[in-house]
Amino acid sequence: MEIDTQQYKELGNFIKTRRERIHPSQVGISDTSRRRTLGLRREEVAMLAGIGVTWYTWLEQGRHIQISPSVLHSIARVLMLNEYETLHLFELAKLTPEKPLQPIQTLKPIFQHVLDSLVYSPAILLDIYWNVVGWNAAYTAAFVDVSQIDISHRNLIKMMFTHSEYQKRFENWEIKAKEMLARFRVSCAGYSKDPWLRRGIESLREESEEFNTWWPLHEVEPEREITKTIRHPEVGNLFFEHTVFMTPENELRLHIDTPLRHTETEAKLKQLLSR
Known about the structure:
Structural class: alpha+beta
Radius of gyration: 21 Å
CATH architecture of the largest domain: 2-Layer Sandwich
């Protein structure tokens, strides 16, 4: 499958960041000399992967070259990529099918009904770009009123990095923001050609110093169940179990925050919703 120039650059940058985090001793290289390069040298990766130094250098530089699955597997092994980083590597190399772009314009009533049925569990529905296309009353009570956010800014990543009131809700905001960004990168790896996505990323790099610093690091991680603490200005801390479900239609992502058992979170939500 054909890769465009931007995709080659993304692939090269991702591999470079992974190379720089590997210490020579981790791959059996004993070197006491002073190094100018972080992590492994390019020639060391090439040697361990059984590929040419020139070819590997071109790969990191984002040049247009032929890439085979077997070579990518060798590079992933040398760079000690985990399962999800390896999948991301192959996604960037277009060795997995490119997903069709199907942004949604209007939310079907059934999806809003599902959101509303989660009475005491804050929930939002995101499209492939992580635009917020649906939410429930519990989400408004616990986080922010999405209806009051300009429609051009109703994007979960944009909210996390540029909406001050939303940011204040998170205990350990920096940790949670980095985790969210890593999951976002995985989800959008197949859409690097998309103009909307590119414009959105460039805009965020201009608007948020943290986003601009962390985006080039190419951190990736899968969606998983996590717990999080939300700091509410009226009722204090709220504790949730966070889960994400994918819908088969248009790749919608349903984010649900379920009140943590043995806490007062549900009672506090009832209090907020009764007002």
